[in-house]
Design a protein that fits this description.
By secondary structure, this protein is mainly α. The protein contains 12 helices and no strands. Helix 2 crosses helix 3, helix 5 crosses helix 6 and helix 7 crosses helix 10. Among the domains are: 88 residues, no CATH class; 59 residues, no CATH class. The relative contact order is 0.06. The longest helix is centred in the last third of the chain and has 21 residues. The radius of gyration is 33 Å and the shape is elongated.
């Protein structure tokens, strides 16, 4: 029993997130999602839920908490505790995986719709699954692939860029230029002038190359 008390004391010393704030945020989540909050968190004792939430939220700034509450309003389902922390740390300068998925489907139907380079790249990477097995099967691979690509992009300090459709006029001109070069390369080499050919033949005959 003494050892358990030591662990509890160590936890209290490590986790400094205010219990009152954890309670308030849980109240906001419950108010936003109603019955779905009960589905996700209802089986957990309220005191344990609050203490766990304190652990999850520990270290976050007030600005990050506000960001989490703002991002949460766009969620379809009630977030778990760890998902709420992710929403707090979500970088608004990049599309979320969920948003990228929705925008990718819109762009697939109408490629004049806006799409980011990262979203388009991810869409092509899962295009075979999407084509052969449908949206339901492609959803999870897209989300996981996008999140991986996003982590890699952030490691490289890249910024989100919108995809820009190539200028068709320039593309056509480049294609025409390429075709002209190919024609130039495929042209038959001009025949050797008769007088020069005769001189070459004479040289070979003297050298014993031609009988």
């Amino acid at each position: 029993m003494f050892e358990v008390q030591q662990y509890q004391q160590a936890l209290e010393q490590t986790v400094t997130f205010p219990i009152e704030v954890a309670q308030q945020i849980l109240g906001v989540i419950e108010a936003v999602f109603g019955a779905d909050f009960e589905r996700v968190h209802g089986a957990t004792d309220i005191e344990i839920l609050i203490e766990t939430f304190r652990v999850v939220l520990d270290g976050l700034t007030p600005a990050q908490l506000a960001n989490g509450i703002k991002n949460m309003r766009s969620e379809k389902w009630c977030p778990t505790l760890s998902e709420f922390r992710r929403l707090c740390l979500q970088d608004d300068s990049w599309w979320t995986a969920e948003m990228a998925w929705a925008m990718a489907l819109n762009w697939k139907k109408d490629n004049t719709k806006p799409i980011t380079n990262l979203t388009r790249k991810t869409l092509f990477e899962v295009s075979e699954i999407l084509t052969t097995q449908g949206q339901k099967a492609a959803y999870k691979p897209f989300i996981e692939t996008y999140e991986f690509n996003l982590r890699e992009a952030k490691k490289q300090n890249r910024t989100q860029l919108m995809w820009v459709r190539p200028d068709r006029t320039n593309s056509e001109e480049k294609q025409k230029e390429f075709e002209e070069k190919q024609k130039e390369r495929s042209r038959t080499v001009s025949p050797m002038p008769a007088n020069l050919a005769a001189q070459v033949e004479l040289i070979y005959k003297r050298a014993g190359k031609v009988s």
